[in-house]
Prior knowledge:
Blueprint: H1 4-23, H2 28-33, E1 39-46, E2 50-51, H3 55-65, E3 70-73, E4 80-81, E5 86-93, H4 94-124, E6 131-133, H5 143-152, E7 166-168, H6 170-176, H7 179-192, E8 199-203, H8 206-213, E9 220-224, H9 228-238, E10 243-247, H10 255-259, E11 265-267, H11 270-273, E12 280-284
Parallel strand pairs: 6-11, 7-8, 8-9, 9-10, 10-11
Antiparallel strand pairs: 1-5, 1-12, 2-4, 3-5
Helix pairs in contact: 1-3, 1-4, 3-4, 4-5, 6-7, 8-9
Amino acid sequence: MISKEQFKEELDIIIxxxxxxxxxxxxxxxxxxxxxxxxxxxxxxxxxxxIIAGVEFAKMVLDYVDSSLEVEVCIQDGTPVKVxxxxxxxxxxxxxxxxxxxxxxxxxxxxxxIATKTKLFVDLLEGTKTKILDTRKTTPGIRAxxxxxxxxxxxENHRFALYDMIMLKDNHIDFAGGIKQAIAQTxxxxxxxxxxxxxxxxxxxxxxxxxxxxxxxxxxxLLDNFDYEMxxxxxxxxxxxxxxxxxxxxxxxxxxxxxLCGVDYVSSGALTHSVSNLDLxxxxxx
Length: 286
């Protein structure tokens, strides 16, 4: 997985690019009618029940826009919220508050939606050993905050990108000429390039599970689109030889049943690609 330093760099890039996109050469609406010296206070209001996420990111945004802004946090990341709750207050330059408003709200609404959905999956898995994983099915350019939201709600992050883990999926295997060839070539590549990356290999059948187990240095087997009975059989065959992960058609109606098959992880792109923003609003306190 990526380091804390790399993750921080991703967040910094998101903020810098989003402010560039939104502000350009100036927030002329605010510049036109609000004196530069004007001070104000605003509250972040919850308008829909869910799990709040993005408070710490909002603080980063506000600090980037104007480090003199003061933030009073009332509700921390990962906390259930209901309509009417106030998450935080911001005090300071009125122009700066308005300059940061849209990025802060957009990010928090998206992150809170992801956290809310993730918590649903986490709760459905309660009492099992199985953990819920996100995927790379994220919004281009803001992957870091979407995966952060998953963690806030108690989910686990899969690989961050193509560079921090090896995942040999069906196309890799077919292009390489088969499972044995793909894994052997991958191990040689890692050795030649002095890289220490975990290897996950996708299986499409019980036969492919057995082929993977005959190879070396496989960290996890991804059971793709297996039904429940096939999953149970695969878990029994794999035992403690490596980790197991179910994927494909994993949603809130199927996740617990797959967990009860005994897999270590279930992964679902729906955590990040199928959510509707949680309704939040920033209002001036007058």
